[in-house]
């Protein structure tokens, strides 16, 4: 990372780490680890020295993520519901206390686990694309499409 790139957000690779810079504030950078998928944390901007900026396509290739190109109406609805769960948290992702409070609110409101909300949030922050929230679809007998976690027999 060049000295004049300190105020630039993006995706940076340093050794085995791939970090997405979400925000720059007072010489610190809010980053999320794209490989280990953990909640964002603050680091010194100087910690990114020696890191190489990579593109979105390189990120998808490095992490093995394949975004769906065409999704069904059911998958689209699920994807938008998941995004709606985390939409209120996104503006406060840099404030740990507020973020934790809003995650707990989403858990109560949507009846899902804390880990579910955190996983949706981290996935969205890493890839910055709503398509990562689309469910994996399995095609079963008789050409019926079922979501893996919503089987009703």
What's this, in brief?
34% of the residues lie in helices and 20% in strands.
Helices and strands in order, then pairings?
Layout: E1 11-14, E2 17-25, E3 28-33, E4 41-44, E5 52-54, H1 56-63, H2 73-87, H3 96-110, H4 114-127, E6 138-139, E7 145-146
Antiparallel strand pairs: 1-2, 1-5, 2-3, 3-4, 6-7
Notes on the structure:
- The structure is a single chain.
- With 153 residues, the chain is an alpha+beta fold.
- It is built from 4 helices and 7 strands.
- The chain has helices at residues 56-63, 73-87, 96-110, 114-127; strands at 11-14, 17-25, 28-33, 41-44, 52-54, 138-139, 145-146.
- The strands form 2 sheets. A 5-stranded antiparallel beta sheet has the order 4-3-2-1-5.
- Strand 3 (28-33) and strand 4 form a beta hairpin.
- Helix 2 packs across helix 4.
């Amino acid at each position: 990372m060049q000295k004049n790139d300190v105020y630039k957000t993006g995706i940076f690779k340093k050794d085995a780490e791939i970090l997405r810079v979400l925000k720059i504030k007072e010489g610190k950078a809010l980053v999320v680890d794209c490989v280990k998928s953990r909640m964002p944390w603050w680091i010194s901007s100087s910690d990114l020295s020696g890191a190489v900026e990579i593109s979105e396509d390189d990120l998808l290739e490095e992490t093995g993520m394949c975004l769906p190109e065409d999704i069904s109406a059911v998958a689209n609805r699920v994807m938008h519901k998941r995004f709606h769960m985390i939409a209120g948290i996104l503006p406060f992702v840099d404030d740990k206390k507020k973020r934790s409070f809003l995650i707990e609110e989403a858990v109560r409101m949507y009846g899902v686990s804390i880990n579910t909300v955190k996983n949706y949030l981290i996935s969205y922050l890493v890839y910055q694309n709503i398509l990562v929230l689309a469910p994996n679809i399995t095609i079963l007998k008789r050409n019926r499409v079922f979501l893996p976690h919503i089987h009703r027999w």
